[in-house]
Design brief:
single chain, 2 domains, two-stranded antiparallel ribbon, 24 helices, globular
């Protein structure tokens, strides 16, 4: 008789308890910089010192509260997205768009080439490559949560499952994150701290990105094919009943145009025109270069004016789908051109939700009711993000995070070059579970690892590479990652089932990462 799988909340709370127990036995410590007589930090003086550890007891019951404080941004982000997409889904615009997209894709079966390789495979590959590029170039991570609500229903409609949908968006972006080429939040910060030219070693990183994507996409395609042949082998077959019920609904949007849709169109066009005057030129920064300066906002506004008018001539649901498309376009412009983060993205989708509700002739009370229903529906995902944040709180308050890092780093003293770079990779992989933020981890670990690599004759570029790969993979299974928990919550995939399924996937990717590090020591690579 199989034992019942513990609820995700039980698993995460158990990790909080285990972390609290560790604070009683692991010595306290922290890394600090020396300061001059004026209290200013002296660079390159980071060193470890012992401090009194802080055993955690009753704090485990306050961890969720403090976790909510720490992860407040992501929690509110999830709730606002849940509400906005609930309004959007009520219009049936996404469902209609998916059905039209699938009909278009199915037409490709007329060609022998597409029949042989499978149109579903083509769609998975193209979507994964797109999100991987986003992750590699500008560090897309939190933004993937917004796309889960679009791609998972698409995956279900194509005969796959929600895990495939999560892989198409979240995993693809984080594969790109691991194979970062121009990501300013990981490579940019790490190379700056290591004293290396910004984005140097680009050629080998491109090679690594290609290898990681080929293997990752092949693994997803293999799994997707199995699920399509026999949907019941999916670990989330029961959970996907929600999505199957959602996508098989024969209810179609009413093909008519409401007068309110024209009002929304005119108001949005007016607002975008004003924005176009204020932001006539935008510089989209790719990595750390000068970027591409062009009239992106005015161009997008002009296109919206044309496509919005055309869509309104057909129906309000089509206009709502048009709104979604331009929301994504302005999201990309905002992130790459104006460094938007979750606050601005949440506001963008919130605006989209309200505009979609009005365009579908909903009253203010109806829109409010739909938003609250959506927020309530996604509440469990928001709660688990706060609870998962409690694990980090306990470890930090117990003063043992830096001790763990120091102990690992000290164990590398007698290793050779290859063993040392692989040990750095292992340390970064483990530390990533405790500190999911790539930027924070770079600030903590690179000042320690870079000088150490000089002592053993190891390239600092190899050290940064070990950080990059270690930062990318384990975040896709770390229960402390608010983005992962949020994405799984949006897709309705239980963390326990995800971790069990993903274990083999991540094991393969970690081995691939270890192999890709060997040439950084044994070969003469440009930038290394």
């Amino acid at each position: 008789m199989l034992k019942k799988v513990p609820h995700t909340y039980v698993i995460v709370f158990s990790l909080i308890v285990i972390s609290a127990i560790a604070t009683w036995f692991v010595p306290g410590g922290e890394y600090v910089f020396e300061k001059d007589n004026f209290g200013n930090t002296i660079e390159n003086t980071l060193h470890y010192k012992e401090v009194a550890h802080q055993p955690q007891t009753w704090q485990i019951f306050a961890a969720m509260f403090k976790g909510f404080e720490k992860q407040a941004g992501i929690i509110v982000f999830i709730l606002m997205l849940g509400g906005a997409f609930w309004i959007l889904n009520d219009s049936k615009a996404i469902d209609s768009g998916i059905q039209k997209f699938l009909k278009m894709v199915n037409r490709l079966d007329r060609y022998a080439f597409f029949r042989k390789i499978g149109t579903g495979n083509v769609v998975i590959v193209l979507i994964m490559l797109m999100f991987s590029i986003f992750g590699s170039v500008f560090g897309m991570s939190e933004e993937t949560i917004a796309f889960i609500a679009i791609i998972v229903p698409l995956a279900i409609s194509m005969g796959y499952d929600s895990i495939t949908g999560v892989c198409m968006v979240y995993v693809a972006a984080h594969i790109g994150f691991a194979g970062a080429t121009l990501n300013p939040f990981t490579i940019g910060i790490a190379q700056g701290l290591a004293g290396l030219p910004l984005f140097s070693g680009f050629e080998y990183r491109i090679f690594c990105w290609l290898i990681i994507n080929i293997i990752g996409i092949l693994l997803v395609l293999r799994y997707a094919r199995k699920v399509k042949r026999n949907p019941k082998i999916s670990p989330v077959y029961e959970e996907d009943a929600y999505w199957r019920e959602h996508v098989k609904s024969n209810e179609k949007p009413e093909e008519k145009t409401y007068g309110a849709s024209w009002i929304v169109y005119i108001l949005l066009l007016l607002v975008l025109t004003i924005f176009s005057l204020y932001y006539s030129q935008t510089t989209l920064v790719i990595g750390g270069g000068d970027g591409i300066k062009w009239f992106f906002v005015p161009a997008a506004t002009a296109l919206f004016a044309i496509t919005g008018f055309i869509s309104l001539r057909k129906s309000s649901p089509l206009f709502v789908l048009n709104l979604l498309a331009y929301t994504i376009i302005f999201l990309i412009v905002g992130v790459m051109g104006y460094q938007w983060y979750i606050k601005e993205i949440a506001a963008l989708f919130f605006t989209m939700g309200i505009a979609a509700g009005i365009a579908m002739n909903k009253s203010a009370n109806d829109i409010t009711k739909l938003f609250l229903e959506g927020a309530r529906d996604i509440m469990s995902a928001a709660l688990i993000v706060g609870l998962a944040g409690g694990i980090i709180i306990i470890l930090e308050d117990g003063k043992i995070v830096h001790t763990i890092l120091y102990s690992m780093a000290s164990g590398m003293k007698n290793f050779g070059k290859i063993a040392s770079v692989e040990m750095m990779y292992l340390i970064q992989t483990i530390i990533n579970i405790v500190i999911p933020s790539g930027s924070a981890k770079a600030a903590l670990t690179i000042p320690i690892m870079a000088p150490f690599s000089d002592l053993i004759g190891l390239s600092r570029q190899a050290t940064v590479m070990a950080y990059q790969l270690g930062d990318g993979f384990s975040s896709m299974i770390a229960p402390t990652s608010g983005v992962l928990i949020g994405a799984l919550g949006m897709a309705r995939v239980p963390y326990v089932k995800w971790a069990k399924w993903f274990a083999i996937f991540i094991g393969i990717m970690i081995i691939v990462g270890a192999l890709l590090l060997i040439p950084t020591v044994t070969m003469e690579l440009n930038g290394f």
